[in-house]
Design brief:
By secondary structure, the protein is α+β, with helices and mostly antiparallel strands. The chain has helices at about 30-35, 45-60, 100-105, 115-120, 150-165, 205-215, 220-225, 230-240, 260-270, 275-280, and strands spanning about 15, 20-30, 70-75, 80-90, 95-100, 120-130, 140-145, 165-175, 180-190, 245-250, 255, 285-290, 295-300.
Length: about 300
């Protein structure tokens, strides 16, 4: 297989179909995904699950256009093989990690269902919009049970149950030339519709949405995860019979980790001196671990005496 042109991955694509009151996004993760996964030695099943979660985070996060806004996706269970999965998106920076029980994961088949991987748990999606609340900003969190065959279906259920927005989501994960590649599509019926028309979100069976959903359903997993297939080509394949389809490239994604030694020290400095002493190891350092990037940040107790 030929080497992948850099422009074909890690740059989400927005699209809209005005005549159908529909909008959506496509994303394919390659270099960014492998940078994130390289922080930990994940078993294949955990790697695949985290890759799908990162695709979902990118699909949802790229809906935020205001600088400083953030999208967080979290899955938590009590007795699952994967105990915690956390991803977030902020200003084009993507990060994520998973905590898992190695023995339980090793006992699962490679095609385990969502319930098999997580057991009983929940999916929480949090939007932190940088705008003031008076302008539609602020924080909003929706929590839904982990239901469906995969994380994509659980996220789709989130929009139907929490947002009451007709939504189609599909993601795919594959390995190409020894690296992990993942892609996904999100299509939605606009919440309001055009001026003077009914509020579309009160109807999940609107004929215009049914048409878009049927077309979106024809996308193939191998198309989503093909690093040599432009995202614009997927939009054309799905919706080329529509009168007008608008596309817009979103900002290129990067691996994001907001670890900052100065910030970490400032946070620790807020604790009383006796608490800091209890946190320190034998060498007199308070060591902070970052799960996202698998880095350790030692802060010397002596630095607080200066």
């Amino acid at each position: 297989m030929a080497s992948q042109p850099e422009t074909l991955s890690d740059q989400p694509l927005r699209f809209s179909i005005p005549a159908r009151d529909a909008r959506g996004r496509l994303v394919r993760l390659d270099s960014v995904l492998n940078e994130i996964l390289s922080a930990h030695a994940y078993p294949p099943l955990v790697e695949k699950t985290l890759a799908e979660a990162l695709v979902l985070t990118a699909l949802l996060g790229t809906s935020l256009k205001d600088q400083g806004s953030q999208l967080t996706l979290q899955v938590q269970t009590e007795k699952g093989a994967i105990r915690l999965l956390a991803c977030d998106y902020k200003d084009g920076a993507l990060r994520g990690y998973a905590q898992f029980d190695a023995a339980t994961v090793a006992s699962l088949p490679h095609d385990s269902t969502l319930f098999g991987i997580f057991g009983t748990g929940y999916l929480a999606i949090t939007f932190d919009r940088a705008k003031p609340a008076s302008e539609g900003g602020g924080r909003y969190q929706g929590i839904v049970p982990l239901e469906g065959s995969c994380l994509s279906e659980a996220a789709q259920n989130y929009f139907v149950q929490s947002e009451q927005i007709p939504t189609f989501i599909r993601a795919a994960v594959d390995h190409v030339d020894g690296r992990c590649v993942a892609g996904g599509i999100l299509a939605q019926h606009l919440p309001e519709g055009e001026e003077g028309r009914e509020r579309l979100h009160v109807r999940l069976d609107h004929p215009e949405w049914e048409h878009v959903e049927i077309l979106a359903f024809t996308v193939l997993p191998e198309e989503l995860a093909d690093p040599e297939l432009p995202l614009e080509e997927i939009v054309w394949r799905l919706f080329h019979e529509e009168d007008e389809v608008r596309v817009e490239q979103a900002n290129k994604l990067t691996k994001g980790c907001r670890c900052d030694p100065a910030h970490i020290r400032d946070v620790i400095a807020k604790f009383p001196a006796e608490d800091r002493a209890e946190m320190a190891d034998e060498a007199g350092d308070i060591v902070v671990d970052c799960e996202f990037c698998s880095r350790r940040f030692p802060v010397s107790l002596a630095s607080f005496n200066n």
